[in-house]
Specification:
The chain has 223 residues and is mostly helical. The protein contains eight helices and no strands. It has two domains: 125 residues, no CATH class; 71 residues, no CATH class. Helix 1 packs antiparallel against helix 4, helix 2 runs parallel beside helix 4 and helix 3 runs antiparallel to helix 4.
Length: 223
C-alpha cells in the first residue's frame, strides 16, 4: 500500500527536472554538480530507494573516474571518441536521476492531478497519460515474446523476425485498447475533473525544491 512518505511529489519532480536541465547546460563547477548529485541521492534515500541510490552513486563515480583518470592516459583515438560522450553523459546524469526517481516514486494518477493543478492543457495531459501507460504495456509484451522464443528455442536472425512482427501487431492493438480505455473513463470530457488523490508535498520535497533553486542561482553566480 502506498504511503504519503514514499510518494515523490510530482510538482517537486517537475521543478527538479527543469532545474537539473538548466544547470546541466550552464557552465558550472564540479562542486556544484556534485552538490546536485548528492541532493538527488539524498532524496532517493528519503523515499527509501536505497538500491537505486547505490546504483546511481556507483554509476556516477565510475563515470567520473573514467573521464578524469582513464581517458587522459588512453590512446588518442579512444580519448577522442569517448570524451564528448562522457562529458554529455555527466551533464545529463542529474536529469536521468530525477526522471528515474519520478518513474519509481510518482504514480501516474498523482502526476495527472499535479498537471491539472498547474493548469496544463487537457489535451496535453491526455497525451502524456496515454503515452506513459503505453510504454510499460509494450515492455511487458516484449517480455512475453522473449519467453515464447525461449520455449521454442528460437535463435539467430529468426529472433529478430519473431520479435518485430508480433511487437508491431501488439503495439497497434495496445494503442487502440489504451485509447478506448481513456475514452471509457471520460478523459476527454470537458467537465471539471475530480480526484480521490490529495497532493501534500512532504517536507523533504520542499527542501529539495529550495536546494535546487539555490543551486540554480549559484550556477549563474559562480563560474
Amino acid at each position: 500500500m502506498e504511503t504519503e512518505q514514499r510518494i515523490f511529489d510530482p510538482r517537486a519532480g517537475l521543478w527538479l527536472l527543469i532545474g537539473a536541465n538548466v544547470i546541466a547546460f550552464r557552465p558550472h563547477t564540479f562542486w556544484l554538480e556534485l552538490a546536485l548529485i548528492g541532493l538527488l541521492l539524498a532524496l532517493m534515500l528519503v523515499h527509501r530507494r536505497f538500491a537505486m541510490a547505490i546504483k546511481w552513486a556507483v554509476g556516477y563515480c565510475a563515470l567520473v573516474v573514467f573521464q578524469q583518470f582513464i581517458l587522459p592516459v588512453s590512446p588518442m583515438i579512444i580519448a577522442t571518441s569517448f570524451t564528448i560522450f562522457a562529458t554529455y553523459t555527466r551533464r545529463m546524469f542529474p536529469c536521468l536521476m530525477t526522471g528515474a526517481l519520478m518513474l519509481t516514486c510518482t504514480p501516474l494518477r498523482y502526476l495527472i492531478v499535479a498537471l491539472r493543478q498547474l493548469h496544463i492543457p487537457q489535451k496535453l495531459i491526455v497525451a502524456i497519460s496515454v503515452t506513459l501507460r503505453y510504454f510499460p504495456a509494450i515492455r511487458e509484451e516484449v517480455g512475453y515474446i522473449r519467453d515464447a522464443m525461449k520455449l521454442r528455442n528460437i535463435r539467430g536472425l529468426d529472433r529478430l523476425e519473431c520479435t518485430v512482427m508480433p511487437l508491431m501487431v501488439s503495439a497497434t492493438e495496445t494503442a487502440e485498447e489504451l485509447s478506448a480505455a481513456a475514452v471509457t473513463r471520460g478523459i476527454e470530457n470537458p467537465a471539471r475533473k475530480t480526484s480521490a488523490v490529495s497532493l501534500r508535498m512532504p517536507a523533504a520535497d520542499c527542501i529539495g525544491m529550495l536546494a535546487v533553486f539555490i543551486l540554480l542561482v549559484l550556477s549563474y553566480v559562480v563560474q
